[in-house]
C-alpha cells in the first residue's frame, strides 16, 4: 500500500511538470516582448551627406509592434526620434534630412520601451564632388604701408549642402598688388584656410581671391594708405615784403610724405602757427592736396617780423620760417587847413600809388587820441576852434610816428 502511494505521487509530479513546461512553451511563443527583443537594425556605415534623408532597414522581424520601438538619432545640428515604418512588407527607420544634410558624427540608439537594445554611430562626410561656394573673408580692409601691418584672407569652401570640406583639401589663395600676383596652396584645417598678407611699402590696392577645383570666390580688396608723415619744409610765396595791409602772402609746405616716400592722403590737416614781434599769436589751417598744404595771410599794416611754423599735430612739423615786412612809406605828409583842420596824406605806397582805403591813422593831441581811417589815401580831422600852432601833435600810421608842432605843418 505504501508503494502504491509513492507511485501515485511520482505520477502526479510528472503531470504537473509537463503542464509547467507546456505553459512556458506557450508563453515563449506568444510573448510580444520576447519577439521584439530579437529585432535589430542594419548598422549605417560612414557615408556622404544626403538631401533626402537616410533609410535604415530593420532585421530579423516578421512583425513589429510600432509603438514599442523608437530610434533616437543625434547629429551635428540636433536630435530627433524616428518610429518604424513599413513599405513593401519591409520595416525601416527613416533619418530625416535635417540630420542627413549636415556633415559630422551621427549617434543612434535603438530603444525598446525604455531599454536600449542596440546603439552605434557613423560619420556623415561632405559631398566633395558637388561643391557649391567658396566664401572669402578679408580684414582689415585698410592698412598702412609699413613693415608692421598686414591684412588676413580666410577661405571657407562648402559643398552643395553648405557643409565645410574635410581637412587637407587644397585651396589656392591669391593676392595681387600692382603688377605682381602671388598664388599659395593651403590645406584646409577645421574647414578653412587662411593667410596673412603683409603690407607693401607703397600705397595702392590689394586684390584677393581663392580657387578650389572649378569654383572661385568673389574678389575682395584692401586699401594701402601712407604711414605717418615725416618732417617737411615750409616756403613763402609773395609779390613783395611791404607791410601795406593789403597784399596776401602764401605759405606752402613741401610735399608731405611718409618715410617710404608715399604722399599723404588728400585731406590731411596741417596747422600754421604764426607770431609777430609784439608777441601776438594766431593760427590758420589747411588740408593737403597731393601732399601739399597752402595757407594765406594778409600783410600787416606796420613793419614787423613773423615767425611761422606748420605742423601735423603730434606727428610731423616744419622748421620755423622768418618773414620780415618793411614799411611802405618813408614820411607822413601833414597839412593844416583853415587853422582848424588837419589833413594826413596823401599816403602813397612803394610804387607811388595811393594806399588802400581803411588804413588806420592815430592822432594824439592835447591828451586825447583820435583814430581815423584813410579814404583815397587821406585822413582828415576838424577841430571845433582854431588850433594853437605851438601845440604838439603826434600822428602814427603804417608803422611810422611823427611828432611836430602844428605850426610846422604845411598850410593850404
Protein described:
There is one protein chain. With 412 residues, the chain is mainly beta. The chain folds into five domains: 29 residues; 89 residues, Immunoglobulins (Immunoglobulin-like, Sandwich), CATH 2.60.40; 95 residues, Immunoglobulin-like; 92 residues, Immunoglobulins (Immunoglobulin-like, Sandwich); 78 residues, Immunoglobulin-like, CATH 2.60.40. It contains three helices and 34 strands. Strands 11, 13, 14, 16, 17 and 18 form a six-stranded mixed sheet that branches. The chain has a five-stranded mixed sheet with strand order 2-9-8-4-5. Strand 8 and strand 9 form a beta hairpin.
Question: Can you give keywords for this protein?
Answer:
412 residues; mainly beta; Immunoglobulin-like; 5 domains; 5-stranded mixed β-sheet; 3 helices; 34 strands; 47% strand; Ig-like_fold; Invasin/intimin_cell_adhesion
